[in-house]
Amino acid sequence: MMPDLPPRHTPVLAAEVLTALAPAPGKRFVDGTVGLGGHSAALLAAGAQVLAIDRDAGALRQAAERLARYGDQVRFVHADFRSLKTILNQPGWSEVDGILVDLGVSSWQLDEPARGFSFRHDGPLDMRMDTSQPVTAADIVNTWEEEPLAEVIRQWGEERYARRVAYRIVQARRQTPIRTTGQLAAIVRQAVPQRGPQRIDPATRTFQALRIAVNRELDGLETFVSEATDVLAPGGRLVVITFHSLEDRPIKRALRREAGIPDDDAPTDFWGRRVTPTPRLRLLHRRPIVPTAAEVASNPRARSAKLRAAERLP
């Protein structure tokens, strides 16, 4: 049974995470993106110990309050999960039984207008997960040249009208600085042609691209998988939840490599055969796990989630 969770916070694929990680008393887990603590609460309720990490200090404070009843079972660290090896350089945590990361922006961040992640409410154009970092989305849209701005929107927002969006942004900021989510969303909507019913708001892709750029979300994902494998105990498991193909592709590629499955870029031997990496992981599923129709109906934000999991070989 899932423990009581805070209002508006429903952890994605919670049952599937528990099945993959198999928590039990005495086991040690890293939740690299604890958010408001939904997944960690389930691990702790099963008697496991949890090292809860998040680079959003606000989310970490709320998680600490909501998981306080578990006392010494849980420790909290304000850090980026990609610094995993440095974080685990402490007594008793050199090897762990499981690691979970839930990538992307959290529901809490989206629901807070002051954080500037969403255009559903007008707020400052911020988008920083770690507010101690200096660069905001407003800095990017007001200072970057048109060409690199268009490239980010095209590549990380997968926006076919990226050049048009970047041009409109540059033209608009010459009149007045773009400081709020409402301003930017209005500019993008004017730039993107709209024909017939729209499945998503025209501003969605541009906002995704800027958020990724601000937080460097795609940096080091493959390295993280390798380092996570290093610190897993034999039989330990790595679980990664992604929400769009830009995240999922490097995670899939890195997991396959650690499982000894060569990719197209793998080196070849004298006869032109791809060299098979030495396997360190066993993939738990042939295909990623996705939410059920019932979960999507109750939590629409889960609709694009994919769960990939692997187990450390002896």
Quick recap:
The chain has 314 residues and is of the alpha/beta class. Helix content is 39%, strand content 14%. It contains 13 helices and 7 strands.
Low-confidence stretches: 1-8
What would you report as the Rg, rounded to the nearest angstrom?
21 Å
Oligomer: single chain
Strand fraction: 5-15%
Q: Main beta sheet, described?
A: 7 strands, mixed
Shape: globular
Residues in helix, %: 25-40%
Q: What is the number of E strands?
A: 7
Average pLDDT number: 92
N to C succession of SSEs: HEHEHEHEHHHHHHHEHEHE
Which structural class should the secondary elements be placed in? alpha/beta
Compute the separation of the termini in Å.
31 Å
Put simply, the count of helices is: 13
Strand order of the largest sheet: 3-2-1-4-5-7-6
Protein model, in words:
The N terminus is likely disordered. The protein is globular, with a radius of gyration of 21 Å. It starts with 13 loop residues before the first helix and ends with a strand. The chain has 13 helices and seven strands. α7 crosses α8, α8 packs across α9 and α11 packs across α12. Helix content is 39%, strand content 14%. By secondary structure, it is of the alpha/beta class. β1, α2 and β2 form a beta-alpha-beta unit. 42% of the residues are buried. A seven-stranded mixed beta sheet has the order 3-2-1-4-5-7-6, with helices on both faces. The longest helix is centred in the middle third of the chain and has 14 residues.
